[in-house]
Write a structure and sequence with these properties.
Shape: globular
Number of helices: 13
Largest sheet: 7 strands, parallel
Order of helices and strands: EHEHEHEEHEHEEHEHEHEHEHEHHH
Number of domains: 2
CATH architecture of the largest domain: 3-Layer(aba) Sandwich
Strand order of the largest sheet: 3-2-1-4-5-6-7
Radius of gyration: 21 Å
Length: 359
Amino acid sequence: MKTILLFDHFVALGGAEKVSLQITWALPDCSLETAWADSELFGAELKSGELKHYGLAFFRHWFPTLSLCWFYLFRYVLASRQVNLIVSGVFAPLVLLRRPKVANTLVYFHTFPSFVNLSVAQLRAKHGWLGALVFRGCSPMYCYLLRRSVQKAKWVFANSRSVQKRFKDIGIETQVLYPPMDLTGLQHHQDKGYFLSTARLEPNKRVELLLEAFAGLEDIQLHLVGGGSLEQELEARFGHYANIKFFGWMAPEQLKTQYNDCKALIYIPENEYFGLAPVEAMAAGKPVIGVAEGGLLETITDTRLGVLLSIPLDLATLRQNILQLHQETLSDLDISYRHQQAMRFSDPYFMDQLRRYLL
């Protein structure tokens, strides 16, 4: 039977987008649909037809979040009822409120709608006074609609215990199913001495703090792979440092080469829901400098895998850990141990579970 995977939107080459594409490739006769997809990042998938989007340029709307809610509540229509339906993201599950009569319905949460927990001051800083009032006023209704929608699904999963707990706090029960990871081609080639960051260039990824650390470490190289809303600003401020290189978005095979040849990954986002990047780095045998919160607590479980820095982060501690790791030599035993840890999150288990529920 045909399967449709419906995901919020494709605006970045992030973990949720990677997982959605992987599921589509792994399941027989599975198509991927979304409200909007960036044609520069996903042009090949759009051209081949493996990704279908409906042209909702939500970011051009006055309130993008409300436009996405409206689309999935009222505008999206399934082309056929004879399908299995996987809904993923925090807006796409709202389609279930109209209870489409399909064979099986499964919800998979990659992330949590963080705006429902932000204070008025935090919302005002991001969206201004009017935006803060709109978010604060609409959040209870959104949570109610999401709870009602998810109740109509046959199975509901979260991608980590961190995400599971957050949904439980707003009245949604989930099971944990760690995301599938394509770790093929990731293996230790060599240590070229550079540190790697693959986090999107967004405020919640703490990339600015990372750049400030390397601005004071001129003999140690940093490679930044990825884009985001802060890309131009950060490149203008830090692009003149000889030890800092901005690469923008990379094709998957190029990114794997970066993992295989780096010294270590630095990944310090705020309350990351799961975090694919640390697992990818470990698959290449590389240690991780991370942060002791969110999904990283579930993957970086001992000191042979890396170090998790305490909150609140400070520049001196980050630099100290970079310097210490820079001076260490990667041992064959530790490389093998990290690779084995990463294999616990490879895709066969996830896909077996998904087929068991849907097929």
